Amino acid sequence: MVIRSLRPDHVGLELCARRFRRLFPMGLAAFAALPEDSQKQLAARLAYGKEQLEAASVAHELGLHVALCDRDVRVTEARFLSRLPPEALLAGSCAALGLSRAAAIAATLNRAQGEHGSAAAEVEQALEEAVKACVLDERDLLLGARLRCLPGRLVLGVVGSNHIDGVTRQWNKVLTSGGEVQAFSQKPHLPVWRRLLGSPLLWRLRGTFG
């Protein structure tokens, strides 16, 4: 792994404290104390986060500082759900449950007043825009800002392939984006109906937020 050859002052992970605890429920030191075979078996069971687990383990082994640079996953989920119009939320959750007919019906609800165009296409566009804004763009800015603030001459960020281009684009903008960083870190209030309706969609997209 590149961490071994570069020996950076800080290793920044695409993890929040909540997701870090999911990977290392007993702590990083306890995981590192396990036999190598046990570590590999646990890593193999992970559906998401293998790269983050490996990076954290290597950094710990080398005595390097590890920083959690992502926002809380619950904030990302709440901002994603709050951005979706009700018909997109309903259609997305129906589709996540495999209810294709219900999803098709939900996708036409916004045509009740005789709107023009394809309701299904509008729902799909709303979902894509919410993912791009809340799951990618906002987190790209936050990751870039937090990585840049880490002390040391050499900082290494470990992020997913979907974030590499975005973090690179944001790198030169973070010096003037303090207001956006603060705003994108805020968790919006979600009505109970929106939280319940969005649960199947979040379950289906689990891992996308990581």
Automatic annotation (TrEMBL):
It comes from Polarella glacialis (Dinoflagellate). InterPro entries: TraB_PrgY-like (IPR046345). This is TraB domain-containing protein.
